[in-house]
């Protein structure tokens, strides 16, 4: 695949290296000439030291035959404009923008960016996963629905331990999708299901029921 | 009737537009990331200056974007202007949005996308040609 990567900071550099290693054709656009020169020593002559939001630069980079543009700079505004120009002026079929402000995820989608990756949200969800006490981790929003898929680890001392699903009673509107025990065994969902400590519970819930669901599974306040 | 206008960017252009609108009696909020840039403006009862990042919807909300009739992005960076203006239009539903885009090709694209754009290089070129009498 022919991929244009805008921005050769940490994300852009590592990404380009991986794409090149997988035999993709890659052109990197990096405005900062020092950074571009440094990366060129490692990656070879795949870097153009220019502004990837400029239509003339994208023309030079061959954007009209590019299949995927990934904008990885630290500036959300730059990443948005690079994707919009690629999409509108060069008909690039797939665009991906990295964003740092989670509020921009929905906006960028509305503005035609195919995929937005929020670094802040990614880091937050990883931190949440590592924290003790069974926090609620957002796995995936369900497209077109108000609900999302979340995951909660049942902590020690949770009132849900040892009680069957029928007895425990989940908030109305929520539903369990899967329960994975600590040893990796997948438990079958049914009224007789008994939850144990360290079970990973994957559930579907609307946002306003998250707290109730989390309390039911962890006993937290 | 005085309008509520928010201007992003207090460079030369932003400051002049802010002064002109305030002189006409509009209520003007000027936003810039750098407080130093407000030296271009004089205090006036209908002119507020706020240090904020115009690419953040949270900060725009804090500055009161939800109550404005018009939003004008006039920073020196096309990318910042494009993001802020589209946010004002789509996320906040501001009735009148004007956006400075220097690059002519990008400008044509944003015109097509429904933004009202102004391009200083284009304006300058037109004026110079006119002054030459061509």
> Could you give the count of β-strands of chain B?
6
Give the topology string of chain B: H per helix, E per strand.
EHEEHEHEHEH
Shape of chain A: elongated
- Counted up, domains of chain B total 1
**Largest sheet, strands/sense/barrel of chain B:** 6 strands, parallel
Biggest sheet strand order of chain B reads: 3-2-1-4-5-6
H-E string of chain A: EHEHEHEHEHEHEEHEEEH
The chain pair forming the largest interface, with residue counts per chain, is: A-B, 20 and 21 residues
CATH homologous superfamily classification of the largest domain in chain A: NAD(P)-binding Rossmann-like Domain
DSSP strand content of chain A: 15-25%
Measured between the Cα atoms of the first and last residue of chain A, the distance is 50 Å
N- and C-termini, Cα separation of chain B: 40 Å
Please report the total strand number of chain A as a whole number. Answer: 11
The CATH architecture designation of the largest domain in chain A is 3-Layer(aba) Sandwich
Number of helices of chain B: 5
Given helix and strand content, the structural type of chain B is alpha/beta
Q: Ranges of chain B with pLDDT <50 over ≥5 residues? A: none
CATH topology of the largest domain in chain A: Rossmann fold
Quaternary structure: heterodimer
Mean pLDDT of chain B: 95
Describe this protein's structure.
The complex is a heterodimer of chains A (221) and B (134). Chain A is an alpha/beta fold. In chain A, 35% of the residues lie in helices and 24% in strands. Chain A is built from eight helices and eleven strands. Chain A has helices spanning 10-21, 33-43, 55-61, 76-90, 104-110, 119-130, 165-168, 210-218; strands at 2-6, 25-29, 47-48, 68-71, 94-99, 115-118, 136-141, 148-153, 175-180, 186-187, 200-205. In chain A, the strands form two sheets. Chain A has a six-stranded parallel β-sheet, sandwiched between helices. A five-stranded antiparallel β-sheet of chain A has the order 7-8-11-9-10. Chain B has helices at 12-23, 57-62, 78-90, 104-112, 120-132, and strands at residues 4-8, 27-32, 47-51, 70-73, 96-100, 116-118. Chain B has a six-stranded parallel β-sheet, sandwiched between helices. In chain B, strand 1, helix 1 and strand 2 (27-32) form a beta-alpha-beta unit. Chain A binds chain B through residues 53-56, 75-78, 80-81, 84-85, 88-89, 101, 103-104, 107, 110-111, and chain B through 55-58, 77-80, 82-84, 86-87, 90-91, 103, 105-106, 109, 112-113.
């Amino acid at each position: 695949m022919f991929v244009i990567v805008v921005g050769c900071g940490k994300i852009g550099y590592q990404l380009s290296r991986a794409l090149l290693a997988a035999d993709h054709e890659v052109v990197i656009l990096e405005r900062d000439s020092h950074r571009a020169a440094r990366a060129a020593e490692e990656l070879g002559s795949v870097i153009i030291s220019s502004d990837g939001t400029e239509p003339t630069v994208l023309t030079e980079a061959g954007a009209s035959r590019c299949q995927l543009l990934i904008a990885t700079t630290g500036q959300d505004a730059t990443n948005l404009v690079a994707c919009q120009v690629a999409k509108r002026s060069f008909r690039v079929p797939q665009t991906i923008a990295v964003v740092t402000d989670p509020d921009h995820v929905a906006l960028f989608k509305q503005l035609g960016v195919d995929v937005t990756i929020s670094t802040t949200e990614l880091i937050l969800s990883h931190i949440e996963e590592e924290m003790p006490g069974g926090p609620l981790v957002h796995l995936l929003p369900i497209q077109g629905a108000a609900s999302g898929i979340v995951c909660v680890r049942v902590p020690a001392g949770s009132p849900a331990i040892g009680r069957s699903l029928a007895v425990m009673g989940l908030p109305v509107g929520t539903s369990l999708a899967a329960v994975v025990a600590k040893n990796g065994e997948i438990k079958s969902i049914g009224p007789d299901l008994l939850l144990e400590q360290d079970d990973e519970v994957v559930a579907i819930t609307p946002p306003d029921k998250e707290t109730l669901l989390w309390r039911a599974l962890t006993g937290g306040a | 009737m005085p309008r509520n206008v928010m201007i992003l960017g207090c460079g030369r252009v932003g400051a002049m537009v802010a002064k002109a609108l305030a002189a006409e009696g509009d209520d003007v909020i000027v936003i810039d990331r750098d407080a130093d840039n407000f030296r271009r403006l004089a205090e006036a009862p209908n002119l507020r200056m706020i240090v904020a990042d115009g690419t953040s919807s949270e900060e725009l909300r804090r500055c009161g974007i939800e109550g404005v009739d018009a939003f004008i992005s006039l920073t020196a960076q096309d990318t910042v202007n494009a993001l802020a203006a589209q946010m004002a239009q789509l996320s906040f539903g501001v009735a009148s949005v004007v956006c400075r885009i220097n690059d002519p090709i990008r400008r044509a694209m944003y015109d097509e996308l429904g933004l009202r754009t102004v391009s200083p290089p284009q304006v300058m070129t037109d004026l110079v040609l006119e002054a030459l009498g061509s």
